[in-house]
Amino acid sequence: KTTTNGADYLLFALIDVVVDHYFIVLESFGERVDQVEDDVIAGVEKKSLQELYNLKRELTLARRAIWPLREMIGQLVRAEHPLISREAGPYFRDLYDHVVQALETVESYRELLASLVDVYLSTISNRLNEVMKVLTVFSAVFMPITFIVGVYGMNFHYMPELAVPYGYFITWGVMIGVTAGMLLYFRRRKWI
Question: CA-CA distances (angstroms) from residue 47 to 30, 74, 118, 136, 158?
Answer without folding.
Answer: 18, 40, 16, 30, 62
